[in-house]
């Protein structure tokens, strides 16, 4: 089966209230599963909120990959025969990470730690992930994950495309200053890599910080399949076709207008991308 229904939950999150956020997630998941979604994506830091003022404060809601939040979602996925991506603060060896878990009916499929950290909210105190993004195989879909600010660095999505992702999921916590990012970047990442791309943002106000919603699901041509262009709670749905995402050779006019999103690259000329650069003055 190449066609696969996904859902994104644009929701408000209660600060540092893990149990109540999990209760809300379970209700939203019941709704998406009832509407036929095989994968449901929640925002960045779904269980915890984002606007922590210190590492010590954030650690109070940090959990391991086998902690109660992941275990709760594992139980839901098993009972509902579905998959979920959600954000949480991962605590390991006294380090705190801004993380995602991808969970299916059989348990944890994979996880991801945010690698690009803005000087904002809890990311001022988290440790950057030390591994490149990887693609996770599910029975019907190849899934890659980024988090929020990662999308501002096209190399991250490109790695996932090269590794064979059909869909890149981007849970976010975008504030008003990221309005153009929300409008433009998901479409660009989808188009340039010929993949499905879904950004799932939160809404609400937390410690004076507003969150703008504007979640969307884009097809491999860069077109919007679903766009919640507002800052209210919503659930967005789309059907994706993995066969279409994997067809990188795009033929408009045979023999006259053809492009190949992977083979036309010139990686031999991109080597400076991996070179460190000197700090740029403010």
- Domain count: the total is 1
Overall 3D shape: globular
Number of helices: 6
- Main CATH class: Alpha Beta
Written as H for each helix and E for each strand, in order along the chain, the element string is EHEHHEEEEEHEHEEEEEEHEE
Using the coordinates shown, work out and report the CATH topology.
Nitrilase/N-carbamoyl-D-aminoacid amidohydrolase
Q: CATH H level: which superfamily?
A: Carbon-nitrogen hydrolase
Percentage beta strand:
25-35%
Question: Could you tell me the mean pLDDT?
Answer: 96
From the N-terminal CA to the C-terminal CA, the straight-line distance is 51 Å
Strand tally, please?
A: 16
Q: Which runs of at least 5 residues are low in confidence (pLDDT < 50)?
A: none
* CATH architecture label: 4-Layer Sandwich
Q: What structural class is derived from the secondary structure elements?
A: alpha/beta
Identify the strand order in the major beta sheet: 5-4-3-2-1-14
**Quick one: biggest sheet?**
6 strands, mixed
Q: Radius of gyration, rounded?
A: 18 Å
What can you see in these coordinates?
The protein is an alpha/beta fold. It has a single domain, classed as Nitrilase/N-carbamoyl-D-aminoacid amidohydrolase. 23% of the residues lie in helices and 32% in strands. The protein contains six helices and 16 strands. It has helices at 18-34, 55-59, 68-80, 154-162, 179-193, 242-246, and strands at residues 3-10, 39-41, 83-92, 95-104, 107-113, 135-137, 142-145, 167-171, 196-200, 203-206, 209-212, 215-218, 224-228, 234-241, 249-253, 257-260. A hairpin with a 2-residue loop joins strand 10 (203-206) and strand 11. Helix 1 (18-34) runs parallel beside helix 3 (68-80). The longest helix has 17 residues, at 18-34. The model has no long low-confidence stretch (mean pLDDT 96).
């Amino acid at each position: 089966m190449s066609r696969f229904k996904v859902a994104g939950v644009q929701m408000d999150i209660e600060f540092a209230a893990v149990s109540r956020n999990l209760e809300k997630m379970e209700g939203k998941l019941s709704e998406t599963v009832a509407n036929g979604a095989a994968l449901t994506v929640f925002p960045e830091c779904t269980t915890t909120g984002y606007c922590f003022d210190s590492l010590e404060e954030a650690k109070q809601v940090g959990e391991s990959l086998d902690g109660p939040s992941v275990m709760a979602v594992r139980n839901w996925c098993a009972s509902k025969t579905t998959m979920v991506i959600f954000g949480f603060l991962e605590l390991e060896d006294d380090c705190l990470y801004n993380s995602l878990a991808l969970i299916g009916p059989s348990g944890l499929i994979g996880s991801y730690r945010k690698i690009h950290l803005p000087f904002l909210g809890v990311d001022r105190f988290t440790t950057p992930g030390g591994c490149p993004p990887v693609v996770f195989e599910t029975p019907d879909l190849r899934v890659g994950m980024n988090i929020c600010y990662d999308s501002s660095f096209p190399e991250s999505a490109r790695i996932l495309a090269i590794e064979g992702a059909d869909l890149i999921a981007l849970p976010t916590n975008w504030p008003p200053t990221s309005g153009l990012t929300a409008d433009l970047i998901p479409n660009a990442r989808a188009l340039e890599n010929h993949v499905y791309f879904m950004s799932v943002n939160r809404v609400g106000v937390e410690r004076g910080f507003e969150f703008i919603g504007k979640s969307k699901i884009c097809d491999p041509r860069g077109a919007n399949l679903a766009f919640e262009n507002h800052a209210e709670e919503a659930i967005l749905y789309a059907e994706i076709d993995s066969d279409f995402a994997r067809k990188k050779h795009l033929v408009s006019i045979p023999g006259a207008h053809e492009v190949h999103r992977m083979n036309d690259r010139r990686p031999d000329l991109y080597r400076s991308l991996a070179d460190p650069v000197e700090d740029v003055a403010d």
